[in-house]
Design a protein that fits this description.
Keywords: Signal. By secondary structure, the protein is α+β, with helices and mostly antiparallel strands. It has one domain (about 35-175): Immunoglobulin-like (Sandwich), CATH 2.60.40. The protein is built from three helices and eleven strands. It has helices at about 5-25, 135-140, 165-170, and strands spanning about 35-40, 45-55, 60-65, 75-85, 90-95, 100-105, 115-120, 130, 130-135, 145-150, 160-165. The strands form two sheets. Strands 1, 2, 5, 8, 10 and 11 form a six-stranded mixed beta sheet that branches. Strands 6-4-3-7-9 form a five-stranded antiparallel beta sheet. A hairpin with a 5-residue loop joins strand 10 and strand 11. The chain is globular and about 35 Å long.
């Protein structure tokens, strides 16, 4: 039985399929970032989550550490807001339930020499926040009214900075 498809057409078809598969396998599937996570402390030293939503929404936040398996993280706290967080600044205590927040995984005790990451998310994975990395030493250097977050410079470099909350509110969304 003879094929009615010419070899050049068949080759182009196979080439197009191969290119499509290659493109799909190399393109990263990431959740768009439209918020910035930070940490602060209360006057009595309790750890605060800080979230600056830039335009869409965030439904909750998770605090995690990397595990020995490079493809896994270990959750040490997870919270959902009673209402989606929309554009603006929100803070909540991480060690006990705050009004308007539900702890799905209450904060486990934090340990020295461990790097923690806090980030925000949506239930449908439509939006996320940048994360903030910190250790207990970083937390201990915070004072009320100051926020630690990972800022992104105009050239794309990321670095941890600690700024007054008013500056965080004014600048956090500039490079999201």
């Amino acid at each position: 039985m003879w094929s009615t498809t010419s070899r050049p057409v068949f080759r182009r078809f196979v080439g197009a399929v191969a290119a499509g598969v290659a493109l799909a396998s190399t393109s990263g599937c990431t959740v768009p970032v439209d918020a910035v996570a930070g940490i602060s402390v209360t006057a009595d030293g309790r750890l605060l989550g800080v979230m600056m939503v830039c335009g869409h929404q965030i439904d909750g936040a998770t605090l995690h550490v990397d595990s020995d398996d490079v493809n896994k993280t270990v959750t040490v706290g997870s919270w959902t807001s009673d209402r989606p967080l929309t554009a603006g600044l929100t803070t909540w205590t991480l060690d006990s339930p705050s009004a308007g927040w539900t702890a799905h995984r209450p904060l486990t005790p934090l340990t020295a020499k461990t790097a923690y990451d806090l980030y925000g998310w949506t239930k449908d994975n439509s939006w996320s926040s940048s994360s903030v990395s910190f250790t207990l030493t970083d937390r201990d250097q915070l004072t009320p009214g100051k926020v630690r977050y990972d800022a992104v410079s105009d050239n794309g470099d990321e670095s941890a900075v600690t700024v007054p909350i008013t500056e965080f509110k004014a600048r956090a969304c500039q490079n999201t």
